[in-house]
Design a protein that fits this description.
Layout lengths: L1 H17 L13 H17 L5 E6 L4 E6 L6 H16 L3 H9 L15 E6 L2 E9 L3 H14 L5
Antiparallel strand pairs: 1-2, 1-4, 3-4
Length: 157
């Protein structure tokens, strides 16, 4: 009796999978196309404000998928943008929020962490799949550019 009940449940589900009707699965990684779309939008926002930035989009391990260093952005901005990515991934929150939480004693210090704005984790389907950051203007301006890029792929900060 138990085997027949299990078969009644399992066989239809197997049929859905074989025929390509499997239930939707949360996206587990950030694609190159999504990174390019976000990068293009972020750069447009930076250019429209005449900010020369380095913008980094990385996967969940912190490995860059897409990097742009605009003309006029100092070489140091790449290091700062990468530190923002690593901080956002390690903290699981925006770098500005991490800075506030650290100052309030709510979180532990992240080695080499950045406490000012401009770095955000990227979550898709409830999973952290990467991070995006910008460096070269004020923290608020860096953050604005990143939010524009994230909005272009339907991600909220």
């Amino acid at each position: 009796m138990r085997n027949r009940t299990l078969a009644k449940i399992t066989l239809p589900l197997l049929g859905f999978v074989v025929l390509g009707f499997a239930p939707a699965v949360a996206q587990q990684s950030l694609t190159y196309e999504q990174a390019r779309t976000a990068m293009d939008a972020a750069e447009r926002d930076a250019r429209s404000n005449q900010w020369n930035l380095t913008i980094v989009i990385a996967d969940a391990q912190g490995v860059p998928i897409y990097v742009r260093r605009m003309d006029g952005a100092s070489s140091r901005t790449f290091d700062v943008a990468m530190r923002k990515v690593r901080t956002a991934l390690a903290a699981g929150m925006a770098t500005g929020d991490y800075g506030q939480a650290l100052a309030a004693g709510r979180v532990e210090e992240i080695p080499d962490g950045v406490t000012f704005e401009g770095g955000y984790p990227i979550r898709l389907g409830g999973n952290m799949v990467g991070a995006m950051s910008a460096s070269g203007a004020s923290g608020a301006q860096d953050a604005q550019v990143v939010r524009a890029g994230m909005a272009a792929i339907g991600v909220e900060p």
